[in-house]
Amino acid sequence: MSQHVISNDAQLRSIYGSPLQNSLALRCMLRELDKHHRAFIALSPFAVIASADREGAPDVAPRGGLPGFVVVRDPRTLMIPDRPGNKKLVTFTNILENPAIALFFMVPGHTETLRVNGKARITTDPSLLAALAVGGKAPLSALVVSVELAFFHCGRALIRSRLWHADVQVASDALPTLGRMLADQSAGVDAADAEARLDRANSMLWAETVSATAVGPETPVTPPVRKHREHREKLDCDRTSVLHYALVRVGSKVREWRRRSRDRRALAAMSDRSLRDIGLTRYDAAFEASKPFWRA
């Protein structure tokens, strides 16, 4: 074995050390969901589920919906709806063999994330699924997760990646379309046909999402398909709904500006050592702090 391969915990700790017993990294690890965890989940439109089969072969899968699509029943239980997908059911088959899972929640615009570990089971109980309905339509099934560990994760990874910054968003033509990539990967697949099928599926999903948010979403959803304007024109929103939507958007934008200003002040106050730890220089911090509050 190479001398450069880490093979035990002692070698690993000799490089990184260990957290102090009273460090925030350890003290924040709770055995149930508190009010801050629940508030974060209520604002999260996206989560990742990690699972493994009985042999330990791992898998991660995304889950998304309107903010709060994951429902917290009580401090030790949350429910995740399962919407129609590709029918491979990798996460579900893993859970049938090994119920241990890990969840990773994100809130757009926030660098902190939430991690939850626990045991999951699959349910089709109508009384439980009713609480997860969107537009009056309940999911086919849901995961009921018994929480064993919950903790916030600091924002270093998202700060380093600048994930939420508009100036790092990749142009849509920087990569081939999914239909084109699938055709290149699979013999006998026609790119145009694959793209048309994907567009139809995405169009239906976009229409359902917009209909569900017509009562006043916190943030607008950017449509992932070409004909999104046609779907918008089909929405039947009365004047009250439109006014409510506008007021919600204004309030959301004001909160975003206040948070941005607060974060920039905190960044400017950080020490050089702390800045280096998140991959920034004093110049980077000064440049970010100098931006007007309305600019991302």
Note down, in words, how this protein is organized.
This protein is an alpha+beta fold. The chain folds into 3 domains: 21-159, Roll (Pnp Oxidase, Chain A), CATH 2.30.110.10; 170-234, no CATH class; 237-296, no CATH class. It contains 12 helices and 7 strands. It has helices spanning 9-16, 24-27, 35-43, 90-97, 126-129, 156-161, 178-185, 191-212, 228-234, 239-269, 272-277, 282-289, and strands at residues 46-52, 58-64, 71-74, 77-82, 100-106, 113-123, 141-153. A 7-stranded antiparallel sheet has the order 2-1-5-6-7-4-3, with helices on one face. A hairpin with a 6-residue loop joins β5 and β6. α7 runs antiparallel to α8 (191-212) and α10 packs antiparallel against α12. It is globular, with a radius of gyration of 22 Å.
List keywords for this structure.
296 residues, alpha+beta, 3 domains, 7 strands, globular
List the helices and strands and how they pair.
Blueprint: H1 9-16, H2 24-27, H3 35-43, E1 46-52, E2 58-64, E3 71-74, E4 77-82, H4 90-97, E5 100-106, E6 113-123, H5 126-129, E7 141-153, H6 156-161, H7 178-185, H8 191-212, H9 228-234, H10 239-269, H11 272-277, H12 282-289
Antiparallel strand pairs: 1-2, 1-5, 3-4, 4-7, 5-6, 6-7
Helix pairs in contact: 7-8, 10-12
